[in-house]
Every structure is written in structure tokens, then in C-alpha cells.
Fold this sequence. Notes:
Layout (H helix, E strand, L loop, with lengths): L4 H9 L10 E2 L5 E2 L8 E2 L2 H13 L6 H4 L5 H13 L6 E4 L2 H19 L5 E5 L4 H14 L2 E5 L5 H4 L4 E7 L11 H10 L3 E5 L11 H4 L3 E4 L13 E5 L1 H4 L38 H15 L6 H23 L6 E2 L11 E5 L4 H10 L2 E2 L1 E3 L3 E5 L7 H17 L5 H4 L6
Parallel strand pairs: 2-13, 5-6, 5-7, 7-8, 8-9
Antiparallel strand pairs: 1-3, 4-10, 9-10, 11-12, 12-15, 14-15
Helix pairs in contact: 1-14, 2-11, 4-11, 5-6, 12-14
Amino acid sequence: MTLTLEDCRARDAADPLRPLRDLFTLPAGLIYLDGNSLGPLPRATPARVAKAVEQEWGEGLIRSWNDAGWFELPRRVGDRIAGWIGAGAGEVVATDTTSVNLYKVLSAALSIQAQDAPARRVVLSERSNFPTDLYIAQALCEERGMVLQLLDDAGDLGAALTADVAVLLLTHVNYRTGAMHDMAAVTRQAHEAGALAIWDLAHSAGAVPVDLHGAGADFAVGCGYKYLNGGPGCPAFAWVHPRHADRFRQPLAGWWGHAAPFEFTPQYRPAPGIGRYLCGTQPVLSLVALDCGLDTLEAARPPGGMPALRAKSLALTDLFIALVEARCGDAGFTLVTPREHARRGSQVCLSRPAGSYAMVQALIARGVVGDFRGPNILRFGFTPLYIGFEDVWHAVDRLRQVLDTGEWQRPEFNRRQAVT
């Protein structure tokens, strides 16, 4: 039986996570289903960044590298992220971008394999992986005379993990479909085949349970501005299993990754462990904003932490799927996201042969913000920190209105913008 609006309101009233919505600045009447692309602004962030600008920079000046703890920010923020991805203290740094961090860890993984198994000359990934991951892998394979092999179907993974594969590079939750890999099982497959496993957690960290140590993963990177709510362009993060951390230095041997950067020696000496995965001077203001974003996740620990977030995420996405099928079943939508909980991230993606982009734009005009991913995906993210069950009901109701009015066919909604 389909839930009513009153049922959704009752579920919100009983939701222990509901008060966390007040931690964010969200425009009145807006239903924000795009936190899987850019998390909203935490209420505490403007004042904290202003303090860093006006007091720490404006008054403390260069002294703030010591007095305000700027120097330790990449490691301190990294330690906070570690608790949400199954990593240990001192194993994660918040730094650079996902693309740059992937270049670092993939380079290190290939160097390890060049020493341990030089005959392995293949990097294996999925054709549907996020493009930046594939571009970085292409560049490194070209540089090292290796081959990038792309799977059309992850179900073929076992057969593709041949004796030629050096590294398996996958995104844990697919950005376009929301499909989620079994990290432990896939990593085990890779290791049994003699390959190292690198995981991109851009659509996982802060959204779904992740246990890097439990899965036996080798390397991971991820994004700070999606579910971690760190703000546009804020630093990403990198994790390296301690068994690999000191084996090879990453190729971007900048001074911040030196064992003693303020000795100013002409010869590079890499810092021990994860510290060597830093590069240049760190973006303090962005790290401060990311630190505030992590406060919003930490606020979910008393009501149940990641298990509570995951349970609500699945309930929200279940509800959205059920309402779309009940109320918009005549619109030609196909559910792209897996129904099985174990295979679903924190988003729901629908495809439609025509009009997908325009429908997203028409929905945005009605105050429901999702996004479009080519060639024909309407993508909706459900962040349980601030999305409620009533939001889901209204989102589907407005989708029904877009369909009934046919307004998605208007020229302004079919005009492509630079960012979709």
C-alpha cells in the first residue's frame, strides 16, 4: 500500500535524525536531492571560515600555522574522515582533489606491482566508472607502457582478473546508476588473482557503510564536497593501507610531503606513512570548511551513527522508488538503481528515452533539485541528514505535475547549460 502524505509526516515525527536538518542552511520550500553532487551549506561554516579569515589570517597572520593548528589540518581532518571509512588514525590525509589523489595512489600501486610482479601490465576498471578515474588511469598507462582494460559488465570481473592485471580500479558506488559493489568480495577476488585494489569512495564516504580494513583494500580516494558537506571544490582525501604506505613514494614529491619540510634541504626525503601523500602548501580555508562539514556527520553519532544513516537512506530511497512507480508508472521511466539494499548507494536514478534533461530542469524550477547524467539519467540523491519522508512525497508529487502539464517540453528547459 502506498504511503500517504500524512504517513510520511508521521515517519518524520518519529525520526531520531530529523533534528539534524537544522544544522544546514537550506532555502525555504526547496527539496534538495543533489547532495550526492554538492552537499548543502552547514550553518556553522560561514562563521568558522570568517574566523579563519578575520582572526587567524587577519590577526594571527603566519603565526597561525602554529597557533591555530593550520599545519596539522590535513592529518587532523583526515583522521576525522577515517572514522567513517573504516580506516585507522594516522592513515588518511585530506588534501588536493580526487583526481590528483588517484594519480598518487595509482602510481604507487603500479610501482609496487612493477617490483613484485613486473609481468602484470594491465589496469582493470569499468567503462561506466567516473570519467576522471579513467582519464587518470589512461594517462598513467600511456606513461608506463601499460594497458587500460574496461569492462562493460562488472559481472565479468572474475574472468577479467587474469595474470596480466596489476591493479583493479573501481568506484564503490557508481555515480550514474547508484549501484554499489561488495567491496570485501571484490577485493578478495582481486587479491586472489594477484592484483591490488583501489577504491574511489566519492559517492560512499558519509553515505554508506565503508570498512576499508575489513575489506582488505589497498588504496582509496574520495571527495569532500558531496556527503561530507565540505563546500564546492574542498579538498578530497587519500588512504593507503599501512602495509603499502612506506614502500613507495608517490610521484608528486612536494615539500609538504617531506619528512621535515622546514629543514629546507635540497634532497627529498619522504615523510613516513600517509604523510608522504601530501604535496604542496595546503588550502587552509577549504580545510576549515571541510572540518565544519564533518561536524554535521559527527552530530549523527548519538542518534545511531552510520547504521542509523544507512537505515534511513534505504527507507527514503525505497519510498521514492515506490511512489514513482505508483504515481508515475505511465511516464516511461526505467529504474536504473538496484532494488537490492546490498547493491544500492544513497541515490535513485531513473532513465527515460527522451526528455530526461528537460524534466530535471522543470523539476528544479518547481523547487526539487536533482541532476542529469547523460545520456538519459535523472539522478536524485537522498542524504538522511537533511532529507525527510515528506520531502520525498512532495518531490514525486512535483514530478507528477511536471508530467501532467508537459512543461518539460518548454524551450527553456531543453536548453543545455554548462553544468548538468
